[in-house]
Amino acid sequence: MSDKQTKTDVILIGAGIMSATLGSLLKELAPQWEIKVFEKLSDAGEESSNEWNNAGTGHSALCELNYTPEKSDGSIDIRKAVKINEQFQLSKQFWSYLVNSQMIHDPQDFIRQIPHMSFVEGEKNVAFLKKRFEALANNPLFQGMEFSDDPEKLKEWVPLIMEGRTLNEPIAATKIDSGTDVNFGALTRILFDHLKRRGVEINYKHYVKDIKRNSDGLWEVKMHNMDSGTIEHHTAKFIFIGAGGGSLPLLQKTGIPESKHIGGFPVSGLFMVCKNPEVVEQHHAKVYGKAKVGAPPMSVPHLDTRFINNEKTLLFGPFAGFSPKFLKTGSNMDLIGSVKPNNVITMLAAGVKEMKLTKYLIQQVMLSNEQRMEELREFIPSAKSEDWNIVTAGQRVQVIKDTEAGKGTLQFGTEVVNAADGSIAALLGASPGASTAVHVMLEVLEKCFPQHVKEWEPKIKEMIPSYGVSLVENPDLFQDIHATTDNTLGLVDHRKTDMLQEA
Ligand SMILES: Cc1cc2nc3c(=O)[nH]c(=O)nc-3n(C[C@H](O)[C@H](O)[C@H](O)COP(=O)(O)OP(=O)(O)OC[C@H]3O[C@@H](n4cnc5c(N)ncnc54)[C@H](O)[C@@H]3O)c2cc1C
């Protein structure tokens, strides 16, 4: 068994959207640095970032009701929505920079404009949606949002959802045309192709088994070359663990103090995909509903027009479920293997606290296909079972940690965990996820390379003009950026332009 050894500046573990984004940023900021990527699968973007494994929503809080909770005084808290919208604007700016620099040739290969809508039933939910609309409508980031509780208007907006619907209860929706569908799998592959052309060494079928720190301060990664069956050791000054669900076990192997008292809880997902082109054609929006009681925020049901391989398709879901695997291609031992002496109390505390979630997930796993169809019929009353198939989505590993709210608190966001000296960082969690990859990877740069950020700032601002500036407080800058990025990324309503062309 040969034992290959190499030394490099940067190692990126995992070829998902996060490593793709960090690699692309670093190639612009420090082009002389040598970067190597190690990925256990045979291609990039095959796990959570793959187009069939996530919902492809460009999350900017235009339609996701869980980002605008109702406060105890009945008012709507829009802080999270504003934050996520601002973060998505950073992604759009960086992608526009890559298009303008011809590193991405055709933005339509990964991003399309699609209306984002929220749809609710029942008096209480309609009142909530109206208040949410009023809280957002005058905010510059949410300009263009419309509200309607008129069934005739809703028939215009979502004919498929209104067809055959009995109107026993009030209904309402909001709609904003500037939403997006993002093919994160395609984007990941585009970015890795570009990195390869820029001299980044991308090693597929390399499974990282261990990470340790050597006495010279470098990090050493031990991996299994799955093609040759050999073990390799590669060292680097900086390591990013962008292994998605596989990040927590690798972070634990580093032994850094920051890796302790953290656990992970895997939530699996299923989508229903429509195979009848006539039904697909009748819908043109991403429509988010309200989460059921006890449901985790990431399993809010939604009916989505998607563009995958240049084809329009329709997905409904996700249905949550439980699987002990941390990756779709993971092992049934992942969850149990992540329980360590330093996090066992944290994990047990979460187990006790999250009984409602566990019950919900078990119920979801037990659903029959016909019961799933019943849930779909809450969106499309006329849905026929023969028009829909089930596809297995990606795994999300939610972070469990001790917070001010107590031991073993389940987190629904993304978290950068890094060594105090910035020599290694991992990304945990998966929400809002890929949409905010640029913001999260800028956070990695700020935390791990504070000594370079000042010198990099002019280049970062060239790529991302609103870097460090609040867009909500600078509406003119937002207008400017919104218009230029939409223009560069070709974000127009294709249905309207197609109709104009036909006329
Ligand atoms: C059901 C679902 C719906 C979602 N919907 C959305 C959405 O609508 N919008 C949105 O923005 N985000 C969404 N997300 C979240 C988004 O998909 C993730 O945040 C994002 O794809 C994570 O990217 P990543 O690069 O961290 O991980 P991944 O894409 O999972 O990549 C990690 C890579 O690391 C590799 N790897 C793992 N372990 C090892 C190892 N030991 N050695 C070598 N390689 C390894 C894996 O094979 C994989 O290729 C969704 C996720 C799920 C599961």
Automatic annotation (TrEMBL):
Pathway(s) this gene product operates in, as recorded in its UniProt entry: Carbohydrate metabolism; tricarboxylic acid cycle; oxaloacetate from (S)-malate (quinone route): step 1/1
One term of GO molecular function: L-malate dehydrogenase (quinone) activity
Record flagged with keyword Transmembrane helix: no
Catalytic reaction annotation: (S)-malate + a quinone = a quinol + oxaloacetate
Parts forming coiled coils: none
Recorded superkingdom: Bacteria
Cofactors demanded by this protein: FAD
Enzyme Commission number: 1.1.5.4
InterPro entries referenced in this protein's UniProt entry, alphabetically: FAD/NAD-bd_sf (IPR036188), MQO (IPR006231)
Statement: the UniProt record of this protein carries the keyword Signal: no
Keywords, ordered alphabetically: FAD, Flavoprotein, Oxidoreductase, Tricarboxylic acid cycle
UniProt family annotation: Belongs to the MQO family.
Protein name from the UniProt record: Probable malate:quinone oxidoreductase
UniProt organism field: Siminovitchia thermophila
Gene: mqo
